[in-house]
Amino acid sequence: MAPKKPSCLRSLLLPLSLTLLLPQADTRSFLVDRDHDRFLLDGAPFRYVSGSLHYFRVPRVLWTDRLLKMRWSGLNAIQFYVPWNYHEPQPGVYNFNGSRDLIAFLNEAALANLLVILRPGPYICAEWEMGGLPSWLLQKPEIHLRTSDPDFLAAVDSWFKVLLPKIYPWLYHNGGNIISIQVENEYGSYRACDFSYMRHLAGLFRALLGEKILLFTTDGPEGLKCGSLQGLYTTVDFGPADNMTKIFTLLRKYEPHGPLVNSEYYTGWLDYWGQNHSTRSVSAVTKGLENMLKLGASVNMYMFHGGTNFGYWNGADKKGRFLPITTSYDYDAPISEAGDPTPKLFALRDVISKFQEVPLGPLPPPSPKMMLGPLTLHLVGHLLAFLDLLCPRGPIHSILPMTFEAVKQDHGFMLYRTYMTYTIFEPTPFWVPHNGVHDRAYVMVDGVFQGVLERNMRDKLFLTGQLGSKLDILVENMGRLSFGSNSSDFKGLLEPPILGQTILTQWLMFPLKIDNLVKWWFPLQLPKWPYPQAPSGPTFYSKTFPILGSVGDTFLYLPGWTKGQVWINGFNLGRYWTKQGPQQTLYVPRFLLFPRGALNKITLLELENVPLQPQVQFLDKPILNSTSTLHRTHINSLSADTLSASEPMELSGH
Ligand SMILES: CCCC/N=C1\SC[C@@H]2[C@H](O)[C@H](O)[C@@H](O)CN12
């Protein structure tokens, strides 16, 4: 389906027979039939069986593959968010190119014969950085996010006046494939409960999208009171372990008539670094789906394909302590992070086939996988040795430390530097009051790594140093809170650190542009290391390697490394945290790799400790469920030849 075109042009684009069959834009409709508790599509009873996938977690070259697999699974619709921060990196600067080409994704979905349930926010949650809100909103520190705060609404209006006109032609009644649009996201779970805000959003959507498009809200059962709004169709979200009858009965208090809708039926769940890998059983998920379909409900399965939090895009939760989301968003979904069908997919397809026609024909086979290595990486240099290149504009000086937001550093890392104003002979406590490290701080004195301070976890180190010694603190932003009562999750040193009895002042802030360095400046002449000790702490390692045969999808395995960031041929693959788990491998889509002997390059920024053998491997299977304790047993279980293989060998691509 293409967006609205003059009917004469449409008839030229389509064979006459098809033109006669397809309803013209002026007769296309997607409506709620309250008399019969159902949807109507072009006047005929319709129920959607939908699945969520996020274009912003899947490289564009893989969109078609994932969408066709979802169509083959029996889905007739997909649901996805639009992350504001993915498209407006700075105020008034917009990016809808490449893997951000939202219209191209809508078109790919149309070509796969999939309708679309769109969720443009402005807040989206989704375990995405700051729930999709741009961090530059926090340059006004007093802003009240997700409320009728005029500063927040002004930014929202400006963003939606760019976004919504782009999707207008893609609304179903205009000839496109968007059948409904969600306003906000689980607003009832947010402390503000600001109806003026929700009414403002509803008014903005109506003003820019017209009266015909179905607008809806989604909330958990406990959020319906503050999350629903008159004029917006109310839907719920719940998983296989929840009481469907009880929740749908509660929903009927808000929508006495019209189709029952579960907008997020959880097929799996998210993972946090340091916690066990989450799964949901095939039997429970399929049973719950069948029960809902028997009721005539429309259902969206969250997630149907999870994908990956590449780069720094993961969000975080707060459950007693700060919990960053892992790089993998596999979600134990029916389609795996690498795009492979799982037993859960086939079981769900069988259930769907009992209620509606599913496409025939074979599902595309799993993608070719490859193993490689182990590769031995070499030391490129300590992060401090590249400071001039990492911060070409030079540092910002301030008496007190400044946050990432104050210096307009959205993601990644910032170095904070001060100088010791007296000699400290005895190990002296060093800490940041009020849990003020957001989120991890790698502390160095004259280039020597002293240890890590971690939000909620580790708040004190003991330091010594000379008068005039450099005290360097590399602070890592581990992703802003994507759920919970306060999304104003400022990053950096939120308070001036204290050494002994001294509040440390006179700071230099170096916002680091690491991705630019990795992309453009490596390989470099090894910079001179100005300190007597060997580099320790944040250090770059790298390896250039050929792949002799064809390439396949693969999973980067970093045994013995601690925590850091990885780039493959300049692409930021995401964070690793081998020491914490449960994720032990990073998904590497084959299109990132050069085949047939061309040179590839892997670059690591290891933040803590490098293994004695600085090796990595590429495996043909992911390891997502191995916390550090389990991990050692897992290492032992890996076949000896896998671990002891010599340097790069011919690919076992298959
Ligand atoms: C008890 C759950 C409250 C938080 N809601 C969640 S956790 C996983 C999912 C995604 O974040 C999704 O974006 C939310 O809308 C609902 N949900």
Automatic annotation (TrEMBL):
Signal peptide start-end: 1-27
Active-site residues from the entry: 186, 264
Keywords attached to this entry: Glycoprotein, Glycosidase, Hydrolase, Signal
Record-annotated Beta-galactosidase 1-like first all-beta domain positions: 401-513
Stretches assigned to the Glycoside hydrolase 35 catalytic domain: 39-354
GO molecular function: beta-galactosidase activity
Matching PANTHER family: BETA-GALACTOSIDASE RELATED (PTHR23421)
Protein's recorded name: Beta-galactosidase-1-like protein
Keyword Hydrolase recorded: yes
Source organism of the structure: Pongo abelii (Sumatran orangutan)
